[in-house]
Amino acid sequence: MRRILVAGNWKLNGNSHSVVRLASAVVQGARELTEVDIAVCPPYVYLPAVQAQLAGSRVALGAQDASVQDRGAFTGEVSAPMLKDCGCRCVIVGHSERRSLFGEQDQDTAYKFAAVRRQGLMPLLCVGETLDEREQGVTEAVVARQLDAVLALEGAGALTDAVIAYEPVWAIGTGRTATPQQAQDVHAFIRSRIARQDAGVAAKTRILYGGSVKSANAAELFAMADIDGGLIGGAALDAQEFLAICQAGHLQGQQG
Ligand code: PGA
To answer: How far is the CA of 236 from the centre of ligand 1 (A)?
Structure first.
């Protein structure tokens, strides 16, 4: 039976008061939502404050990125061992904003994926094409290249305790969601790509969709055969909206 995961990516938003309010509201609302896994990924500096709210709850703490380095003279970096120490259970790697705005290459993402796994944390690997790439018909080639960088370094077995998020760049923060069928097609492609190496792992790997998910479209996305949850940006900043998306995951989970 598949279990839906809904993860909130708070990006560069909030302050010490608002993150605590948001985390506390999510914890309250999540109590009843037993059939869905939930995580929130605040900015680094708020991890301890948010973790204090999440302690003992069903909501897991995650981070938005991690250094490829574990320690040393790397000013400004935050390492996976530090994230683990702060109570994180998962870490987003290869978000399209890291790739497009900060020059992160496929290989860097693969090293981050490995660094996160070394600590026993769950990497949440983002892949996805730009609008240009979709229009050129190279969506599958782009997603395959991004995925293969990780498969080559870590092997398909590494995906057993990882999650993939398909996030078409043209749908992130634009209000333009991929249709459930568009998303399903790429999710099925990702699963088949993993299956080429290990069919057992492919069947179990959770593949989330991200890109303008909101309460109004979550249920139809989560109902698709290969969509196992969502990575939520903008809508994760509003507790009620985020919880409504989690509720859609919970209802889907109840159906099995
Ligand atoms: P969005 O962001 O939900 O605001 O489109 C998703 C993401 O970037 O993970």
So the answer is: 9
Q: Active site residue: 35, 104, 129, 167, which one? A: 167
Q: Is the pLDDT of residue 255 over 90?
A: no
Domain ranges of the chain: 4-255
Chain segment 36-62, per-residue pLDDT in tens: 999 999 999 999 999 999 999 999 999
Closest residue to atom 9 of ligand 1, CA basis: 233
Q: Which fold has domain 4-255?
A: TIM Barrel (3.20.20)
Per-residue 3-state assignment (H helix, E strand, C coil) for the chain: CCCEEEEEECCCCCCHHHHHHHHHHHHHHHCCCCCEEEEEECCHHHHHHHHHHHCCCCEEEEECCCCCCCCCCCCCCCCHHHHHHCCCCEEEECCHHHHHHCCCCHHHHHHHHHHHHHCCCEEEEEECCCHHHHHCCCHHHHHHHHHHHHHHHHCHHHHHHCEEEECCHHHCCCCCCCCHHHHHHHHHHHHHHHHCCCHHHHHHCEEEEECCCCHHHHHHHHCCCCCCEEEECHHHHCHHHHHHHHHHHHHHHHHC
Task: Respond yes or no: is residue 167 known to be catalytic.
Answer: yes
Name the residue with the closest Cα to ligand 1, atom 7. 233
227-250: pLDDT as tens digits = 999 999 999 999 999 999 999 999
The percentage of residues in the chain with a pLDDT greater than 70, rounded to a whole number, is 100
Full-model pTM: 0.97
